[in-house]
Structures are given as C-alpha cells and as structure tokens.
Design a protein that fits this description.
The protein is an alpha/beta fold. Helix content is 42%, strand content 17%. It has four domains: 2-50, no CATH class; 69-224, Rossmann fold; 230-276, no CATH class; 302-370, 2-Layer Sandwich (Alpha-Beta Plaits), CATH 3.30.70. It has 14 helices and twelve strands. The strands form three sheets. The protein has a seven-stranded parallel β-sheet with strand order 5-6-4-7-8-3-9, sandwiched between helices. A three-stranded antiparallel β-sheet has the order 10-12-11. The protein has a two-stranded parallel ribbon with strand order 1-2.
Length: 380
C-alpha cells in the first residue's frame, strides 16, 4: 500500500517529481490512498493517473465549509493587527489557540510580543529543530502553554484536542490554505472558531476568497478593552459561583481574613488578584460602525481631524517602560503641540509610533529639532 498524507501540500512544496518516482516504482497491484483537507486540480490529476476506480470519500458537503467551525472576520487598521491579536486572545481565553503567520520572522516577532505581554506561548516554524517542536507540542498538551504561533508548513499535521481557536494573523494565500489552517480546530465533533484579521484595504479580496470557498463568515470589529473587561467579569462570576470543596486550612485562612477585612474588601482583593494574572488588553483605534467599502471604513476609522496624518517614531518601547501617560506629555513638550493634536499612539517592544495631523507635521518636526537634547527620554 502507498499512503500520501497532506498530499496537496507535498505537491505545492515541489515534491511532484519525487512522488511520481515513488509511485512509478511501486507494484502495480498496490493500494493507493490520498488524504487531504482539500482536493485541488493537481491532486485530482494525480489520483486519476495513479489510482484505478478510486472511491472518493468526503466528510464535508460540497456546498459549505467545515460545519463545526464558526468563521469570523475582524477588520482593523494595519498598525492595529498585533493589538487585535492580543484582544482576541483575551476575549476568547481559549484553552488552546493557534496563530498563523506567513513567515518565520513574523512568527518570531509575534511570539516575542506575546511572551512580553504575559501570554504562555510557544512558536513553530521552519527554523525550529524537531526537538524544539516536540518540546513546544508537549507544552501545549500539558497546558504549560496555551498559544501557538506558527507558519503554515510547521503546523501541518498538528492535532490538539483542546484547540478551539484559530487566528489568521496574516491572511492565507488562497482558500485551500484557509481551510487547512482552520481545520486545526473543530475536530472529532468538537466546535471551533476561526478568525481572520483583515486590514481594511484587503477586505474585498477576502470577501471574494470566502465566496469562492462557500464559507459563511461573520464580519465584526476587533474587541475593545470594555468588551474584554465585561467578558472577564462574566468568567470570574461563573468561576466563583461553581461548587468547590474547601479544605479546613482554606476555611481557616478565610476566617482570619474576615477578622481583619470586610467581606467587600476581601472580594475586591480576589478580583484584583484575578485580573493581575491576565495580560492587559490593548487600546484599539476607534472602530467604524459602517459596513461600506474598506476604503470608506479606513477613513472613518480615525477620529475627526485625523483622516490625513503623518506617523512619527520614537526609539523607546515597552522594554524601556514606555507608557502613554508620560509619552503623550513628552510629545507635546517636544513638538509644541497640545494633546488634542496627537492621534493614535502605538507602543511596540522597542519603539513607539504616533500620529500627528499632516497640516501641522512640519511645524511639529521643526519644534522637535529645536528641542533636541532637552529631554532625556527618547529620540523622535
């Protein structure tokens, strides 16, 4: 027997000649089985050539995508993609989630950003050895890690029963890749969610791809800080209302606390402790409620006066303890502008990006040059 798993990916990676050499050298009376989540024309042609009277078995209908996967699409500004990833992870709090990126560099960058924010995450890409891959997979299985950042090829064959959330951080190149990625969840009768993060200017292309794949998707805005706080409240209430066995030591400690603190103070401390364990959600650029074109959405995405902006960069980020509470006054002092003339502020690991309206960008830059050296923190 000859068995080819992930047959379409093997062809796509350039192994056609190797596969045909193997099949040509195998006995005529063999049994040939091809497994693939999708059946593109190249696979159909291969099957016709090397299989006789083949029986095609499909576990999904031809008129729809995977029935156990709920598809969502989140529209964002390009500068907000990483913040959207953070907020989606925080909103869903999935037992296990996988995030797909297009390149090794992007996997490395996103993984580092999530670790820095406090997520228990691992990475899978072509630059990792088999031992590193095995270690990452074991961390996911025993719940030491809950998030996996991966490239398409590295995640092939990945099977985790607890995986309930797939996030397409970078858009798949075609419908087949979309289905292969999303198929990491919704397995063995379990339900799963697949979310595409769609930059405004790519929305039309994504809509065409989804229509071609016959996949119904729910379009929505990225979750906000308030959305996540509300979800946290609901999860905390559910957790605390569950019946639990309390041992005598815990009961005695609870009694001692109530002797020194009021019930309200103890409860508030419990809530604070719960929140402190969770990575902080990110502020998003205010989302538009319009369902119009991606170009219109992109324009409405900014608040009044910030449709035409210039992005500036500072050489400080989270690793240098950058915080909007002191970054904003610093920008105003250096550029001789008011806080109402500063748009979105995006703090990355080692840099900070911020918006200034184009109409005052030249004046702002001139003031920055005049005040250079007057502040200890950060060069613009």
């Amino acid at each position: 027997a000859v068995i080819l798993d992930e047959a379409d990916e093997m062809l796509d990676m350039g192994f056609r000649e190797d596969l045909e050499l193997i099949l040509d050298a195998s006995p005529e009376g063999r049994r040939t089985l091809l497994f693939s989540a999708t059946m593109p024309k190249s696979i159909v042609a291969l099957a016709k050539r090397y299989q006789k009277d083949a029986l095609r078995i499909s576990t999904v209908g031809e008129d729809r995508g995977h029935g156990d996967i709920s598809y969502q699409a989140v529209t964002v500004a390009p500068a907000d993609i990483e913040n959207a990833v953070v907020n989606l992870l925080r909103l869903h709090e999935a037992e296990t989630a996988i995030l797909f990126c297009a390149t090794r560099d992007n996997v490395r960058h996103l993984h580092a950003g999530l670790i820095e924010r406090g997520f228990a995450a691992v990475a899978l890409s072509g630059e990792h050895s088999q031992n590193e891959r095995n270690s990452a997979m074991q961390a996911l299985r025993d719940k030491r890690a809950r998030v996996c950042v991966a490239t398409d090829v590295a995640a092939r064959g990945l099977d985790l029963p607890s995986l309930s959330l797939v996030v397409h951080v970078e858009l798949p190149r075609d419908a087949e890749t979309l289905q292969h990625r999303s198929g990491r969840t919704g397995r063995a009768g379990k339900k799963g969610t697949a979310i595409l993060i769609v930059p405004y200017q790519r929305k039309r292309r994504v809509e065409m791809m989804l229509r071609g794949a016959r996949i119904a998707v729910e379009w929505m805005n990225a979750p906000t800080v308030d959305d996540i706080r509300q979800a946290d409240k609901s999860r905390l209430m559910t957790m605390l209302m569950e019946d639990v066995e309390i041992d005598e030591d815990d009961r005695a400690l609870g009694a001692q606390l109530l002797e020194k603190k009021t019930p309200e103070e103890v409860a508030a401390a419990l809530v604070r402790s719960y929140r402190a364990r969770m990575p902080a959600p990110e502020e998003m650029i205010e989302a538009s409620g319009s369902a119009g074109s991606s170009r219109e959405a992109g324009k409405e995405h900014h608040r009044d006066g910030f449709d035409d902006v210039v992005w500036f960069r500072m050489d400080i980020g989270r690793r240098q303890n950058a915080d909007p509470r002191w970054i904003l006054p610093l920008i105003c002092r250096r550029g001789h502008i008011t806080k109402n003339e500063v748009g979105a502020i995006r703090i990355a690991a080692n840099e900070t990006m911020f918006q200034v309206p184009s109409a005052i960008a030249s004046k702002f830059m001139s003031a920055v040059k005049r005040t250079e050296g007057q502040e200890a923190e950060g060069a613009v």
